[in-house]
Amino acid sequence: MQKPNFVRRTLLKAIVSAMALGSASVAMAEVNMAGKTVDWVIPFSEGGGSDKWARFYAPLLSEQLPGKPNVVVKNMPGAGSTKGANWFASRAKNDGLTILGTSGSTQFPYLLGDKRVKFDYADWNVVLASATGGVAYLPADLAAKWKQDPKSIMDTNFVFGSQGATRLDLIPLLAWTMLGLKVDPVFGIKGRGDGRLMFERGEANIDYQTSGAFLSKVMPLVKEGKAVPIMTWGALDANGEIVRDPTFPDIPTFKEVYTQVKGEAPSGEAWDAWKAFFVAGFPAQKMVFLPKGTDQEIIDTYSNAFKAVTSQPDFPEKAKKRLGVYEQATGAKADAFKKLGTEVAPNTKAWIKKWLKDRYGVNL
Fold first, then answer.
1. Looking at the structure, do residues 356 and 209 belong to the same domain, yes or no?
2. Please, what's the b/e burial string for 218-245 (b: 16 or more CB within 10 A of its CB; e: otherwise)?
3. Which tens digits make up the pLDDT trace of 157-183?
4. How far apart are CA 192 and CA 51, in angstroms?
5. One domain, residues 54 and 161
6. Interacting residues of 91 by C-beta distance below 8 A, sequence separation 6+
7. pTM for the complete prediction?
8. What is the DSSP letter of 20?
């Protein structure tokens, strides 16, 4: 018997006569996606970290899903990623043909109670969680001065292309404020790839990218001498401490730079808030979801497919070149990452909301 949704479940019932074998029935559900197309919605424009991440995974996922369906990345930017996430929450069918890839820029407005958020992470089924990092960089002339003494450019008027203060860009904006840099954000870009383009055109003189986009799009600029990395946001070790990013071990962390500039390690409410949102935004930075109401067979099929992808012997080397050296979680660990990325203490949220209002006039 076939059901009319995308997943062809073949329910085989063999009824053997009671006289011969007694009354019995055997049911077996099988997911088959042959000839189908999976839309992978990315709520950002092309060229950014989330887009690069999805396009890296898409062909690998296709190979591991039963029937090898075509997996197509669909960019749906707008409203700092809430447009695409809202669409997924209200319009995506639970037949398994549509999946959503989110990032910290989707999680932060959810955490902060942004009025544009019409979705609830609790409704969605996570099947992959990817940790990542972020790298800040400058043009060569400013970077040369920074290398001599970061304090020498504290009076520079920096311009930064930003998706918005309540998105993942909160991390660099707060970091730069804590350092004392004079950064004027130009809000409203649709993805970090647009911010990089502003930098390339000379319209911005400070930028950051998540690791995947940095490796693929900014490293060529670094090799040409047009961009110089100055810090990463770091990584989280097993003890919850900020350590150097394993993908960029030669670049100092924001914590190290702060200590160099200020003469003491960061502490206090600003640091506590920065670290809390860093944890929510980067160790659990990118996740793949199926919509509310999706059958468990479909959820398991996707979880197993992603596990098969990440378990391949050559996956670490492939991922290193495109995504960096970070954990890729499925199953129960992905659920734990989801919890990490969608929960922040109420007092920390309150501090961030006040800072956003005082600094940028953002009312949440």
1. yes
2. beebeeeeebbbbbbbbbbeeeeebebb
3. 999 999 999 999 999 999 999 999 999
4. 10
5. no
6. none
7. 0.80
8. T
